Amino acid sequence: MEFNEDEKAERALRVYRDLVKTTEDVMALQGRQLDSLGLTMSQYRVLEMLLRRGPMGQGTLGAEALAAGSNTTIVIHNLERRGLVVRRPDQNDTRKKVVHLTPEGKKLVTRVFPMQAKLVQAQMAALDSREQERLARLCRKLCGGDPERFVELTAGDEE
Questions:
Q1: Which CATH number is 9's domain given?
Q2: Please, are residues 58 and 73 in contact by the beta-carbon 8 Å criterion?
């Protein structure tokens, strides 16, 4: 069955809306759980990243743990104010700061992480293991989209 361009666009928009809605719904559940613990999603991501990977530079944390548009400095400052992280000068470059979990931060994130994992696992239980693997592959494929193809498809839109 061949689709015309309008049908392809409509299908793509429908799938995109479904993807965004699903993501927002799961994140809303996580957000409510984190809210009850006095954490934002951004703060949790920083704590989780530090737990899994150890101390790291503030710039790396911002690029890898936070959503685009998040203000890394404010997120880390608020965690620091609560005594959950501490910033120390980088041993190799004192202009840079390395963020470390404090014992209090580690205690909190090790308590919260299993709760978050259970919530996501419960949500993902709607899919069997093969479907989950396929979804993961599709997400990676979408993230690795071809920017040249995007430019090619949208080139005529500016006219």
A1: 1.10.10.10
A2: yes
